[in-house]
């Protein structure tokens, strides 16, 4: 996956932050799976692992919330995503 490296795609790239790392994103939305893959490239979740994704600086006022598996959220310039992986007990 190479977000932000798709010339002619027609979308304006915005800067987002995933676990404090900066990325260029050129789609209007980002999915739970895409955020996880930016945070932990080539590291799939193991059985029993759970990823919790929280975001801030999004749309609609404060723009804070959480992203669930299979879900998407509209991106905004300087949006922040925090990804936490825990082992389900």
Automatic annotation (TrEMBL):
<dbReference type="InterPro" id="IPR027802">
    <property type="entry name" value="Multi-ubiquitin_dom"/>
</dbReference>
<dbReference type="Pfam" id="PF14452">
    <property type="entry name" value="Multi_ubiq"/>
</dbReference>
<protein>
    <submittedName>
        <fullName>Multiubiquitin domain-containing protein</fullName>
    </submittedName>
</protein>
<feature type="domain" description="Multi-ubiquitin">
    <location>
        <begin position="14"/>
        <end position="83"/>
    </location>
</feature>
